[in-house]
Every structure is written in structure tokens, then in C-alpha cells.
Structure prediction request, 299 residues.
Amino acid sequence: MTNLTTIPKYVPPRIESTDQQMIPKIIWQTMKTNCIPVSMKGFCMSWIDKNPEYEYRFFDDNDMVNFISEEFPEYFEGFKKILYGASKADLWRYLILYKYGGVYADIDCKCNRPLKEWVNPDAKYVTQLGTNRDVCQWLIITVPKNEVLLRAAQKTLLNLQKGTCRAEYKGFSLLNDKLTINEGPAIKVNHQVMGLGGPPILQEAAEECLCDDSCSHIFEFTQVVCTSGKKSCQMNGHVTHDYGNTNYLEGLKQLGTRHYKHHYKEHPILLKSLAKKCLHKITGIHVWIAKTARFFKQK
Prediction:
């Protein structure tokens, strides 16, 4: 069995910051528990060690429940319906960053270069364009009250209430260092995790905010670090997102955390939606049979 180690839930800044920037110097991470396999600890510690002027905060499942129930009670009933830990983390990251701002990094993200060396001081939102030309969701760097994040949280809640897992977006391009929405057909996602509150939801929210001009004060000061090709540009190499590595997946297994790709079970939300569709089709068939029977009887 893999040895377990503990990640601190709170680490205060170790040095006084002399550099001013718009984005609060707080790093946020989450996992089912802060007692994790040793293989995961190195990634977490990279954020602490390379950014001593930042405070570090780690939320376990109970911390997420307490935060959402106290600070965003209108989301709590929806949050309790979520099956997968990844989707809980999706909704939580939108809400915690909307309230406080700072830096959110997935547990399988490694900081390769100190944030102060590549985050622009006047930036209000720092991201990259991924392989689908979407904004980054595994690493979110933002000021508080970023409407894109609130919109993403609202969309996630709506999916939970409606029993859907859908998102639709076109992707971004950079034109004269400004984000623009791509032409052409939309990318449609219907997936129990990705379409519930995952990256496609964040991208859909960002495109809506750009269109309705509700985030002009954010997009005016958005730093796009890099644009991906066929592979992720990984924040221009400043960060490594190592999703899918064997040690990480083994660590999840040891913690008893279901991964949505490797331990798939039908989501009750999807089952409810599927049942409605099937019932609608069966009802339609019954109506057709009845009409056909009446037709031949008249003959």
C-alpha cells in the first residue's frame, strides 16, 4: 500500500511581498482529504515552495460543504446531488474564486516557475487557450468578482436542476491580443462530468460574458499566456498538468475516490434524463399504434 502523507490546510506567506498585483496572493487546492499518497504531495508542495509570498489554502470535502452551505446556500442543494468529486471541485472552484480570487490549481498540477515571474501585475484574469481553444480550467488565476466564474457556477447549478449535462461553445482566438469568438460550428458536449460543470461550461460562460459585455473590465486585462496546438501549451511550460499519470490514478484508487473516466457508473442525473427520453419515445410509439389500429378498423 502506498504511504500516506499530510498536506497542510493552511500555510501563511513566508516572506513579505514587495510586488503589487491585481490578483490576490492566495493559492487554492482541493481533494477528498488532505491525507494523500506521497506521490501527490510533490505537486502540492511545488506551489507552496515556489511562491513564498502567497498564502496556501487546502479544502477537503467537508471544507467544501461548509463553505458552500454558509457562503452560497442557494447552491447547496444542487451541490449535494453531485456524484463525482471532480464535479464538486468544479463548482467549488468557481465559487471560492468568485468570492476571494487568487490561484486555483488542480491537485495534479506542478508549478515549475514562480508565479511572480510570469503573472502580469495588472492582469485580472490569467489563462491559456487549450487544444479546443478554450480557457484553462485546471489552473484559474483571477481577481474576485469575475463574472465568468459566477456564470459558470450558475450554469452548473442549472444543469443539476434540469438533470442535464450539456455545454456548447465555439472557442476563442487571439486578435491583436484580444479574445474573439471563433466562426463556424459549435462544439457540443454531453458528458456526465465535462458537460455538468467542467471546462466546456467555463468556456461557454466566458463566451457569453464576452458577447453581452458583462466582463469588459475583466477581458480588458486578461493575460493569455499561450495558445495550444495539438498538445497543451502548459502555461508556456510554467506549469505541468500531469493528469492521467499512473501514480495519480493509483493515488485516487487508494483514497477510494472514483475517477469519472476510470470508474464509470451512470450518473443519476443522466439516468433521469434518459428515462424521460425513453418514456417520450414509448408514448409516441403507443400513440402511433393506436392511430394505426383505428385507421385499419375504419377500413
